[in-house]
Design a protein that fits this description.
7-stranded mixed β-sheet, binds zinc ion, 12 helices, alpha/beta
């Protein structure tokens, strides 16, 4: 297996989760009695460019299953984040009615709706038809395809191209970044947000690792990838989403009007100090993941022994990775609550934990609620604050087991 960016042979394992089902392959009641497919889940780090990456295996169709897609608009904090970004970027780039904004992986129009509100022409690129159709119903123009270098040649050039949590999801990262170069106007800007590898390592966020995430990115590596394709990074911001992400700003290498901000040098320095340029740090991660797993199991078994009731919140990929690696089934967690009506009535893959509506919490009055999306735990704890009436406690497993 070779590095998907620089083609160096991959020999160093960053994390081995042994195997896992496709993390969004929620099961119907009937499917509980049929075999489930598990894929190896081994993550490598490239010695040369330090790109942390997962093998593609044989998957695509099953893993990018259309039926139970994630709808961005179900997260209030994500909407607020997007709205704030739109106001900031319109101001920073002086975008007006003559500009064109393109969002790659525009989902259900959660973000472009705010450009539309401001009268700025925008288009979304979104291959998943169920989310794309929601965006269209909001009056947003959507191209229902994957963004590739080929597609980039066919579409109108943009003043701003943005992509949130898309860089990590690409099997063909070179083709994608090459496409960005093609689709960008001479004076245009690209912004991309992605979880920062530095935080993933520092905060034991191994549950963010699943098959749909092909790459785990440092600024150091992303800079190499963009430069290879004639783009330069001129600014970077740390943002709090997904447990600590980066928002990078890129433009054409030839665009001499743009000054490279001090933030670029500073972050490269920080990553170097943390050790991301050397191989040693990458060898520490498996032990960190194992520690999280063992602590969670200890806690769940203790709860069981004390005959307390425990449920979970958030039927998303993070929870599936954690449960699957820990080997937890529906004997230790009674159900998982999720806002999305598309998931309610289904079951988590592998663990077969039922996904239910929030009303079930009121009925059961559990002693503990394990929150899987720890990155939005404040939002969830606020939403579930009524559970304090019966002294229910909240729990997260990552970065380490904590009870609130
Ligand atoms: Zn490489």
């Amino acid at each position: 297996m070779k590095c998907r960016f620089c083609q160096t042979k991959l020999e160093d394992v960053f994390l081995d989760l042994i195997n896992a089902p496709a993390s969004n392959s929620y099961l119907t009641k009937e499917q509980l009695d049929t075999p489930e497919v598990f894929y190896p889940c081994k993550v490598y780090v490239c010695q040369k460019c330090k790109l942390v990456q997962i093998d593609e295996y044989k998957k695509s169709d099953e893993i990018f299953n259309n039926n139970y897609a994630y709808f961005s608009s179900y997260s209030t904090s994500w909407l607020a984040h997007s709205k704030k970004y739109v106001a900031m970027i319109i101001n920073r780039l002086s975008l007006g009615e003559d500009a064109l904004v393109t969002e790659i992986a525009s989902n259900d129009g959660y973000l472009l709706q705010y450009f539309k509100e401001r009268g700025i022409p925008c288009v979304g690129i979104e291959p998943t038809s169920c989310t794309a159709s929601v965006a269209k119903s909001k009056g947003i123009k959507v191209i229902e395809e994957f963004f590739t270098a080929d597609l980039a040649k066919k579409i109108e050039k943009s003043d701003l191209i943005l992509g949130n949590n898309v860089l990590a999801h690409l099997p063909e990262i070179n083709d994608f970044v090459q496409g960005l170069k093609v689709a960008l106007k001479a004076s245009g800007t690209i912004t991309m947000e992605f979880p920062h590898l530095l935080n993933i390592i520092k905060e034991n966020q191994f549950d963010t690792i699943y098959h749909e995430h092909f790459s785990y990115l440092s600024f150091y590596t992303v800079k190499q990838i963009f430069e290879k394709h004639g783009l330069k990074l001129y600014d970077v911001e740390k943002i709090s989403t997904h447990g600590g992400s980066l928002r990078i700003y890129a433009t054409h290498k030839e665009n001499s009007d743009i000054v490279i901000q001090e933030s670029v040098r500073e972050l490269l320095e920080e990553e170097k100090e943390f050790g991301l340029l050397e191989m040693d740090i990458y060898k520490t991660f498996q032990a960190k993941a194992n520690r999280v797993k063992h602590k969670l199991l200890e806690f769940l078994l203790k709860v069981k022994k004390e005959k307390k009731r425990l449920v979970a919140y958030g039927a998303a990929a993070k929870g599936n990775t954690l449960l699957n690696y820990a080997g937890v089934k529906n004997d230790l967690i009674e159900f998982v609550v999720d806002k999305s009506p598309h998931k309610q009535g289904m079951f988590l893959p592998a663990s077969h934990i039922p996904i239910v509506n929030e009303e079930e919490i009121m009925k059961l009055k559990p002693d503990y609620i394990l929150i899987f999306p720890w990155n939005i735990k404040e939002e969830i704890m606020k939403q579930l604050s009524y559970t304090q009436k019966w002294n229910c406690k909240f729990v997260v497993g990552v970065p380490h087991l904590e009870i609130f």
